[in-house]
Amino acid sequence: MNQDIPAYQGQTENFNKVSGALWDTLHDFGEIGEYRVLAQTDDCVIIRVENETGEGDMIVHQVFDGVFLMYNDFHMASYHSMYQAVETMLAVDYCREGSLTMEWENGMYCMKKPGSICIDSRVHHKGMTYFPTNHYHGITIGFVSTLAEKALEDQAAGIPVDLAAIRLKFCGNDGYYIIQENETLKRLFTDLYRVPENAKLPYFRTKVLELLVCLSVMEAKEVKDGGTYFYKDKVEKTKAVQKLISENMDQDYTIAELAEQFGISQTALKECFKSLFGKPIYTWIKEYRIGKAREYLTEREDMSICDIAGAVGYKSQAKFGAAFKKVCGMTPNEYRNQKH
């Protein structure tokens, strides 16, 4: 079995020998903007989007006609999505690692964080997408209604699934529904990172049908809507707080001071910061400082351990050493003396 690596990743040399029927089909369902096709076969395509902030890969598998399973692997700060569905869509997104923030036309931001599952009509998908942690890993299962409904009726007879009813129940006419806590759905998606190599298509089909059955019997009011929504001004203020902290690591700030300086309540700051960056403020600060210390230890031979401790906000070299060892499992000197 594959262990945490999406099928075909890093194995593109064998793809271009086969025609790209799948990508020809996908291309008819909507425009995504600028991209490169890295590799393709009749039932799988790897596409890449990139800009000055980084790159993102999407590995798309066709499961049934009109049903697609996509592994998402982004290492970038932001991306302007041009995707606009031309068919009625239902998409289910699972965030495995990192975070994603979408800017809506109404001035609100929708945030997805590890473990969240977003049921989405794809009506408002066009616009800016931000990756506050500079990476995002997850899975999307998408259904193009007209084709998917027919394919499921033909190939999954006896399994009562109504895509239109699921879409209406969770999304209304044009909305989103984010579930933050559901172990059954989470386990279903994590299983897709351990796909039997010799039975990909049957495994994908089983999991897609399992997902649809789960959503069919689940009442929206019975699950916790873990959707995190913030107005633009709160998001911008929280980003400014993070920028201030990251550019002044030698300074200590309290949440009260930061909230007052940027005109935001302490509660809103704590909630928005955790949603944007995946960790509470003080946890993020500690990990960021240790991360920068690791960079200095490997790249700045002119800096002593004491210099580095001060540069990342530790007044005491001993406290810095203890914090570094707790996170990295070794002292700063031991880390510096390793081969990197």
How are the secondary structure elements laid out?
Blueprint (H helix, E strand, L loop, with lengths): L20 H7 L2 E2 L4 E5 L3 E8 L2 E11 L2 E9 L2 E4 L2 E2 L3 E10 L1 E4 L4 E5 L4 E4 L6 E4 L5 E9 H11 L7 H9 L4 E4 L3 H9 L8 H18 L10 E4 H16 L7 H8 L3 H12 L3 H19 L5 H7 L5 H12 L3 H6 L3
Helix pairs in contact: 4-5, 6-8
Entry keywords:
39% helix; Jelly Rolls; alpha+beta; 5-stranded antiparallel beta sheet; disordered N terminus; 2 domains; 8-stranded antiparallel beta sheet; Arc Repressor Mutant, subunit A; 340 residues; 12 helices
Shape: elongated
Number of strands: 15
The CATH class of the largest domain turns out to be Mainly Beta
The quaternary organization reads as single chain
> The biggest beta sheet, please?
8 strands, antiparallel
Biggest sheet strand order reads 2-3-4-5-13-8-11-14
CATH architecture of the largest domain: Sandwich
Portion in beta strands: 25-35%
Overall residue-averaged pLDDT value: 82
How many domains in all? 2
Instruction: Report the span from N to C terminus.
Output: 30 Å
Regions with little confidence, pLDDT below 50 for 5+ residues: 1-20, 222-226
By CATH, the superfamily of the largest domain comes out as: Jelly Rolls
